[in-house]
UniProtKB/TrEMBL annotation:
NCBIfam families: HEQRo_perm_3TM. One of its GO terms (cellular component) is ATP-binding cassette (ABC) transporter complex. This is Glutamine transport permease protein. GO terms for biological process: amino acid transport. It comes from Azoarcus sp. (strain BH72).
Length: 245
Protein backbone atom coordinates (compact mmCIF):
# COMPACT_ATOMS: atom_id res chain seq x y z
CA UNK A 1 0.00 0.00 0.00
CA UNK A 2 1.62 3.25 -1.17
CA UNK A 3 -0.34 5.57 1.10
CA UNK A 4 1.58 8.66 2.22
CA UNK A 5 0.97 9.23 5.93
CA UNK A 6 1.10 12.87 6.97
CA UNK A 7 -0.13 13.66 10.47
CA UNK A 8 1.39 17.13 10.28
CA UNK A 9 -1.32 18.26 7.84
CA UNK A 10 -3.64 18.85 10.82
CA UNK A 11 -1.53 21.92 11.63
CA UNK A 12 -1.51 23.34 8.13
CA UNK A 13 -3.33 26.65 7.68
CA UNK A 14 -6.54 26.58 5.64
CA UNK A 15 -8.12 29.20 3.39
CA UNK A 16 -10.02 30.73 6.32
CA UNK A 17 -6.87 31.22 8.38
CA UNK A 18 -7.57 28.30 10.70
CA UNK A 19 -5.78 24.97 10.91
CA UNK A 20 -7.39 21.63 10.10
CA UNK A 21 -7.16 20.67 13.75
CA UNK A 22 -9.29 23.76 14.50
CA UNK A 23 -11.93 22.38 12.14
CA UNK A 24 -11.93 19.10 14.07
CA UNK A 25 -12.23 20.89 17.42
CA UNK A 26 -15.03 23.09 16.09
CA UNK A 27 -16.87 20.04 14.76
CA UNK A 28 -16.50 18.30 18.10
CA UNK A 29 -17.95 21.34 19.84
CA UNK A 30 -20.97 21.46 17.52
CA UNK A 31 -21.49 17.70 17.88
CA UNK A 32 -21.45 18.02 21.66
CA UNK A 33 -23.83 20.99 21.65
CA UNK A 34 -26.30 19.34 19.27
CA UNK A 35 -26.20 16.03 21.13
CA UNK A 36 -26.63 17.38 24.66
CA UNK A 37 -29.37 19.81 23.64
CA UNK A 38 -31.24 17.08 21.77
CA UNK A 39 -30.80 14.71 24.72
CA UNK A 40 -32.44 17.24 27.06
CA UNK A 41 -35.46 17.48 24.73
CA UNK A 42 -35.57 13.70 24.32
CA UNK A 43 -35.55 13.05 28.07
CA UNK A 44 -38.32 15.59 28.71
CA UNK A 45 -40.62 14.58 25.84
CA UNK A 46 -39.81 10.87 26.18
CA UNK A 47 -40.64 10.90 29.88
CA UNK A 48 -43.98 12.62 29.26
CA UNK A 49 -44.83 10.13 26.52
CA UNK A 50 -43.74 7.19 28.66
CA UNK A 51 -46.04 8.32 31.47
CA UNK A 52 -48.93 8.94 29.06
CA UNK A 53 -48.65 5.37 27.77
CA UNK A 54 -49.10 3.93 31.28
CA UNK A 55 -52.06 6.00 32.42
CA UNK A 56 -55.62 4.67 32.66
CA UNK A 57 -56.67 7.18 29.96
CA UNK A 58 -57.17 5.44 26.61
CA UNK A 59 -56.85 8.78 24.82
CA UNK A 60 -53.44 9.54 26.34
CA UNK A 61 -52.25 6.01 25.63
CA UNK A 62 -53.39 6.31 22.00
CA UNK A 63 -51.61 9.65 21.56
CA UNK A 64 -48.40 8.28 23.05
CA UNK A 65 -48.53 5.08 21.01
CA UNK A 66 -49.18 7.00 17.79
CA UNK A 67 -46.23 9.29 18.40
CA UNK A 68 -43.88 6.39 19.10
CA UNK A 69 -45.07 4.40 16.09
CA UNK A 70 -44.53 7.35 13.73
CA UNK A 71 -41.21 8.64 15.04
CA UNK A 72 -39.61 5.22 15.51
CA UNK A 73 -40.50 3.99 12.03
CA UNK A 74 -39.39 6.98 9.95
CA UNK A 75 -35.62 7.32 9.37
CA UNK A 76 -33.96 10.18 11.22
CA UNK A 77 -32.63 11.87 8.09
CA UNK A 78 -36.12 11.89 6.55
CA UNK A 79 -37.49 13.48 9.72
CA UNK A 80 -34.81 16.18 9.59
CA UNK A 81 -35.67 16.96 5.98
CA UNK A 82 -39.35 17.14 6.99
CA UNK A 83 -38.57 19.70 9.70
CA UNK A 84 -36.37 21.78 7.40
CA UNK A 85 -38.27 21.69 4.10
CA UNK A 86 -41.83 20.43 4.61
CA UNK A 87 -43.04 21.79 7.95
CA UNK A 88 -42.37 25.47 6.98
CA UNK A 89 -44.69 24.97 4.00
CA UNK A 90 -47.49 23.53 6.16
CA UNK A 91 -47.68 26.24 8.81
CA UNK A 92 -49.04 29.78 8.28
CA UNK A 93 -46.93 31.76 5.82
CA UNK A 94 -45.51 34.21 8.36
CA UNK A 95 -44.35 31.37 10.62
CA UNK A 96 -42.98 29.45 7.65
CA UNK A 97 -40.91 32.44 6.51
CA UNK A 98 -39.59 32.89 10.04
CA UNK A 99 -38.59 29.21 10.17
CA UNK A 100 -36.81 29.41 6.83
CA UNK A 101 -35.13 32.79 7.26
CA UNK A 102 -34.61 33.51 10.97
CA UNK A 103 -34.75 30.24 12.91
CA UNK A 104 -31.17 28.95 13.32
CA UNK A 105 -30.44 25.62 11.66
CA UNK A 106 -29.02 24.46 14.97
CA UNK A 107 -32.41 24.80 16.70
CA UNK A 108 -34.28 22.89 14.00
CA UNK A 109 -31.68 20.11 13.97
CA UNK A 110 -31.79 19.79 17.76
CA UNK A 111 -35.59 19.59 17.74
CA UNK A 112 -35.57 16.97 15.00
CA UNK A 113 -32.95 14.80 16.70
CA UNK A 114 -34.53 15.29 20.12
CA UNK A 115 -38.05 14.32 19.03
CA UNK A 116 -36.73 11.27 17.18
CA UNK A 117 -34.84 10.07 20.26
CA UNK A 118 -37.83 10.87 22.51
CA UNK A 119 -39.79 8.04 20.89
CA UNK A 120 -37.07 5.59 21.91
CA UNK A 121 -36.81 6.95 25.43
CA UNK A 122 -40.60 6.77 25.78
CA UNK A 123 -40.33 3.01 25.28
CA UNK A 124 -37.70 2.77 28.02
CA UNK A 125 -39.69 4.88 30.49
CA UNK A 126 -42.85 2.90 29.82
CA UNK A 127 -40.99 -0.36 30.41
CA UNK A 128 -39.54 0.96 33.66
CA UNK A 129 -42.93 2.03 34.99
CA UNK A 130 -44.56 -1.25 34.00
CA UNK A 131 -41.76 -3.17 35.72
CA UNK A 132 -42.73 -1.71 39.09
CA UNK A 133 -44.97 -3.60 41.46
CA UNK A 134 -48.56 -2.37 41.26
CA UNK A 135 -48.53 -1.99 45.02
CA UNK A 136 -46.35 1.11 44.72
CA UNK A 137 -49.12 2.98 42.93
CA UNK A 138 -51.74 1.80 45.39
CA UNK A 139 -49.52 2.76 48.32
CA UNK A 140 -49.13 6.26 46.91
CA UNK A 141 -52.87 6.65 46.41
CA UNK A 142 -53.49 5.35 49.95
CA UNK A 143 -51.21 8.10 51.27
CA UNK A 144 -53.42 10.69 49.62
CA UNK A 145 -51.35 11.33 46.47
CA UNK A 146 -53.13 12.10 43.24
CA UNK A 147 -52.44 9.90 40.20
CA UNK A 148 -49.88 12.39 38.90
CA UNK A 149 -48.21 12.71 42.30
CA UNK A 150 -47.67 8.96 42.41
CA UNK A 151 -45.72 9.31 39.16
CA UNK A 152 -43.68 12.25 40.40
CA UNK A 153 -42.81 11.03 43.88
CA UNK A 154 -43.08 7.23 43.73
CA UNK A 155 -43.09 5.61 40.31
CA UNK A 156 -40.82 7.72 38.08
CA UNK A 157 -37.89 7.92 40.54
CA UNK A 158 -37.85 4.12 40.71
CA UNK A 159 -38.53 3.62 36.99
CA UNK A 160 -35.55 5.80 36.04
CA UNK A 161 -33.28 3.67 38.20
CA UNK A 162 -34.48 0.53 36.42
CA UNK A 163 -34.02 1.86 32.88
CA UNK A 164 -30.85 3.90 33.44
CA UNK A 165 -28.65 1.35 31.60
CA UNK A 166 -30.97 1.56 28.58
CA UNK A 167 -31.00 5.36 28.81
CA UNK A 168 -27.21 5.24 28.81
CA UNK A 169 -27.30 3.49 25.45
CA UNK A 170 -29.67 6.11 24.05
CA UNK A 171 -27.44 8.92 25.32
CA UNK A 172 -24.44 7.32 23.60
CA UNK A 173 -26.42 6.78 20.40
CA UNK A 174 -27.45 10.41 20.21
CA UNK A 175 -23.80 11.43 19.76
CA UNK A 176 -23.50 9.00 16.85
CA UNK A 177 -26.87 9.96 15.35
CA UNK A 178 -25.88 13.63 15.44
CA UNK A 179 -23.68 12.92 12.41
CA UNK A 180 -26.85 12.91 10.29
CA UNK A 181 -27.35 16.63 10.96
CA UNK A 182 -24.50 17.42 8.55
CA UNK A 183 -27.04 16.84 5.77
CA UNK A 184 -28.93 19.97 6.82
CA UNK A 185 -25.90 22.20 7.17
CA UNK A 186 -24.77 21.76 10.77
CA UNK A 187 -20.96 22.11 10.92
CA UNK A 188 -20.57 19.16 13.26
CA UNK A 189 -17.80 16.58 13.32
CA UNK A 190 -18.89 14.50 10.32
CA UNK A 191 -19.36 17.65 8.22
CA UNK A 192 -15.79 18.71 9.00
CA UNK A 193 -14.60 15.16 8.31
CA UNK A 194 -16.01 15.31 4.78
CA UNK A 195 -14.59 18.80 4.21
CA UNK A 196 -11.11 17.82 5.31
CA UNK A 197 -11.09 14.75 3.05
CA UNK A 198 -12.13 16.89 0.08
CA UNK A 199 -9.41 19.45 0.82
CA UNK A 200 -6.50 17.14 1.66
CA UNK A 201 -7.24 13.53 0.60
CA UNK A 202 -5.60 12.41 3.89
CA UNK A 203 -8.38 9.88 4.41
CA UNK A 204 -6.82 7.53 6.93
CA UNK A 205 -5.52 10.16 9.34
CA UNK A 206 -8.75 12.11 9.59
CA UNK A 207 -10.83 8.92 9.75
CA UNK A 208 -8.80 7.67 12.71
CA UNK A 209 -9.04 11.02 14.52
CA UNK A 210 -12.79 11.41 13.95
CA UNK A 211 -13.45 7.79 14.97
CA UNK A 212 -11.51 8.28 18.21
CA UNK A 213 -13.33 11.58 18.85
CA UNK A 214 -16.75 9.94 18.54
CA UNK A 215 -15.55 7.14 20.80
CA UNK A 216 -14.32 9.57 23.46
CA UNK A 217 -17.59 11.54 23.43
CA UNK A 218 -19.78 8.44 23.66
CA UNK A 219 -17.53 6.77 26.25
CA UNK A 220 -17.51 9.90 28.41
CA UNK A 221 -21.32 9.86 28.43
CA UNK A 222 -21.24 6.15 29.26
CA UNK A 223 -18.98 6.71 32.26
CA UNK A 224 -20.95 9.72 33.50
CA UNK A 225 -24.26 7.86 33.47
CA UNK A 226 -22.57 4.76 34.89
CA UNK A 227 -21.43 6.90 37.83
CA UNK A 228 -24.95 8.29 38.27
CA UNK A 229 -26.35 4.76 38.18
CA UNK A 230 -24.03 3.62 40.97
CA UNK A 231 -24.85 6.65 43.11
CA UNK A 232 -28.62 6.26 42.71
CA UNK A 233 -28.83 2.45 42.86
CA UNK A 234 -31.36 1.10 45.37
CA UNK A 235 -29.97 -1.90 47.31
CA UNK A 236 -31.74 -5.07 46.18
CA UNK A 237 -33.17 -3.46 43.05
CA UNK A 238 -31.96 -5.19 39.87
CA UNK A 239 -31.20 -2.60 37.19
CA UNK A 240 -29.51 -4.73 34.57
CA UNK A 241 -25.94 -3.60 34.98
CA UNK A 242 -24.00 -0.45 34.36
CA UNK A 243 -23.13 1.35 31.16
CA UNK A 244 -25.23 -0.16 28.39
CA UNK A 245 -23.85 -0.27 24.84
Amino acid sequence: MNYHWDWAFFFQETDDGLKYIDWVISGMGWTTAVSLSALAIALLVGSVLGVMRTTPSKLLVAIGDTYVDIFRNVPLIVQLFMWFFVVPELVPESIGLWMKQDLPYFVTAVIGLGLYTAARIAEQVKSGINALARGQRFAGLALGFTEWQTYRYVRLPMAYRIVLPALTSEAMNIFKNSAVTYAVGILELYFQYKQIIEKTSQVLEITIVVTLTYFVLAFAMNRLLGFIEKRTRVPGLITGGSGGH
